[in-house]
Structures are given as structure tokens and as C-alpha cells.
Amino acid sequence: MCELTHALDQSQPKVSRHLALLRQQNIVVDRRKGQWVHYKINPEMPDWAHQVLVLTLENSLESIANELLRLTEMQNRPVTCN
After folding, report:
1. How many CB atoms lie within 10 A of CB 16?
2. In the list 20, 49, 67, 80, which could disulfide-bond 7, CB 3.0-4.6 Å?
3. DSSP state letters, 1-63
């Protein structure tokens, strides 16, 4: 969550609402660990849907360059958990 709010420069409630919609549609899954909620792309997503996400990312790198830069410059970035 904190990485997304930082990269997208959006408020936590707004990002939370969008993640909830993605979770309801089984696009992402979440895992709670204490007060933290970790999100990832649903590994059980159909292959065709995963391919849509891959193609969208590959063809959008220029339009999301600023967000990727903000993410790489983020201080105290959380340690990724599996």
C-alpha cells in the first residue's frame, strides 16, 4: 500500500478503494501480516487475463515512467515478503 501511494502520488484511502475493487474481481489477492496487508497479482488468474496485464505493462512503460521513478527513489521502502 505505501509503495503504491508513494509511486502514484495518491491518498491511502483512494488506493485502498481501488485495491478493494481489484480484490473483488480476483485480479489481486491479499495476505495480512499484523497491521500490514500485502497484495500481489492473483496467481490463479487465467492465462489470457495475465497476458492482458503483461501486454498492458509492456506497452505503457513510457506513460508510467514518472511513477516507476518515484518508486525507485522511495526512502525506507518496505522489505518485500513472499
Report:
1. 15
2. 67
3. -HHHHHHHT--HHHHHHHHHHHHHTTSEEEEEETTEEEEEE-TTS-HHHHHHHHHHHHTTTTT
Q: How far is it, in rounded angstroms, from Cα 53 to Cα 6?
A: 21
Question: Residues 23-74: pLDDT tens digits?
Answer: 999 999 999 988 888 899 999 999 999 999 999 999 999 999 999 998 888 8
Give SS3 for 80. coil
CA distances to 24, 32, 57 from 35, rounded to whole Å, are: 21, 7, 30
Answering whether pTM is above 0.85, one says no
